């Protein structure tokens, strides 16, 4: 038997939330695996239809959850606006590339620096992808301080791509604040070390 409800809470990083049945009653636990593959990520206040089953511990949980047809058109426009807004931070990468080229032409930044940024960025992106997969499967997570250290060391372009393209750690404000602080510190250190002032440290 199918029921109608509204997603009352949703933790995208951990991949679960609760559905409030429209007919009343207790909220129903729902996991990301209950949604069909290829469907957009669930969001709070989305109207859905679902079936109910018993979990191993005897508690009720939702299965075969589908976004209600009547709300999809309105949500598609919202997702489009959110996507455009989410892509804006990625402009930091081409802006940094422009700065890198300018400093290379001015102060002759060695090629090893670009190689280091590329390697750390790939490592950071992989770390974000692995952590997101671990969150979905409820496995051991990568500590946030390690993700920040990778960004601070120079992997922030890959970390930024991971946050925006994978949608991981993108809604947690405290994490985002620390992340952008690491970006500013890294870029500032890059400029100083590339300048004549930083010649003694190279």
Describe this entry's structure for a reader.
The chain is α+β, with helices and mostly antiparallel strands and 202 residues long. It folds into two domains: 3-67, Nucleic acid-binding proteins (OB fold (Dihydrolipoamide Acetyltransferase, E2P), Beta Barrel); 86-196, no CATH class. Helix content is 51%, strand content 17%. The chain contains five helices and five strands. A five-stranded antiparallel β-sheet has the order 3-2-1-4-5, with no helix packed on it. Helix 3 (111-137) crosses helix 4 (144-165) and helix 4 (144-165) crosses helix 5 (173-194). The chain is elongated, with a radius of gyration of 22 Å. The chain starts with a strand and ends in an 8-residue tail after the last helix.
Helical run tally: 5
Question: What is the structural class?
Answer: alpha+beta
Backbone shape: elongated
Our count of domains comes out at: 2
Task: State the major sheet.
Answer: 5 strands, antiparallel
The N- to C-terminal Cα distance equals 69 Å
The overall pLDDT, averaged over residues, is 86
The number of distinct β-strands equals 5
Give helix % range: 40-55%
**Uncertain stretches:** 70-85
Strand order within the widest beta sheet: 3-2-1-4-5
Report the C-alpha radius of gyration, rounded.
22 Å
Q: SSE string, helix = H, strand = E? A: EEEEEHHHHH
Strand content: 15-25%
Summarize the structure.
The chain is α+β, with helices and mostly antiparallel strands.
Please name the defining characteristics of this protein:
202 residues, 5 helices, 5-stranded antiparallel beta sheet, 5 strands, 2 domains, alpha+beta, OB fold (Dihydrolipoamide Acetyltransferase, E2P)
């Amino acid at each position: 038997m199918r029921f109608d409800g509204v997603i009352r809470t949703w933790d995208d990083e951990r991949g679960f939330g609760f559905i409030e049945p429209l007919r009343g009653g207790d909220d129903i636990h729902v996991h990301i695996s209950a949604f069909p593959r290829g469907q957009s990520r669930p969001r709070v206040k989305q109207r859905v239809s679902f079936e109910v089953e018993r979990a191993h511990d005897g508690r009720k949980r939702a299965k075969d959850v589908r976004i209600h047809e009547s709300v999809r058109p309105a949500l598609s426009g919202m997702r489009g606006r959110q996507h455009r807004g989410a892509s804006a931070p990625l402009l930091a990468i081409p802006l940094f590339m422009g700065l890198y080229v300018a400093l290379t032409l001015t102060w002759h930044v060695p090629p090893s620096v670009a190689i280091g940024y590329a390697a750390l960025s790939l490592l950071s992106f992989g770390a974000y992808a692995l952590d997101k997969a671990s969150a979905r499967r409820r496995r051991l997570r990568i500590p946030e301080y390690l993700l920040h250290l990778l960004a601070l060391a120079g992997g922030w372009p890959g970390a930024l791509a991971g946050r925006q393209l994978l949608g991981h750690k993108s809604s947690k404000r405290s994490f985002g604040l620390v992340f952008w602080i690491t970006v500013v510190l890294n870029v500032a250190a890059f400029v100083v070390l590339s300048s004549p002032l930083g010649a003694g440290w190279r």
